[in-house]
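W.,

You were right to be curious about this one. When I first looked at the sequence I had no strong expectations either way, so I just let the prediction run and decided to look at it fresh. Below is the sequence, 145 residues in total, followed by the output.
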Amino acid sequence: MSAVVLISYSDKPVFLYLMNLYGLFAPGIATMFLMGVFWKRTTSQGALTAGLLTIPLSLLLEYTLPEMPFFNRTGIVFWTCMLACAVVSLLTPAVAEARLKNLVLTGDSFQVPDQDKAAYRGFRNPTLWWIIITVLVLYFYVRYF
């Protein structure tokens, strides 16, 4: 029923309408995830700032610059949220290193412990499967695009 209403009263395709709505909250969620996983200095206050900024900033840009494509607006909001998260995280006390162990992605995150290396040989080797999947994706990309 709601799809019929959207189609009847909208001057743009439903896909664009849904992508526009998705662009309201996606930048904040992406910021919280990326900063939280890849930067150990991120604090909960910084992530919360990014999450709280995403919808008001998106709506502000949507109504002040209505002709701006939603991808551009989403990109501007994303980078603004990233900057706000970084600034607030730097202005608040850092989280203790002990609490961050195994939460933030580092080079050691990709290492298989010595006691487990024997169990992940041959076809159970993650590197082998990464190579196989990458080659298959590249093959299909080149073949069909």
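Here's what jumped out at me. The first helix runs from residue 2 to 9. And, maybe more interesting for your project: The radius of gyration is 21 Å.

Coffee later to discuss?

I.
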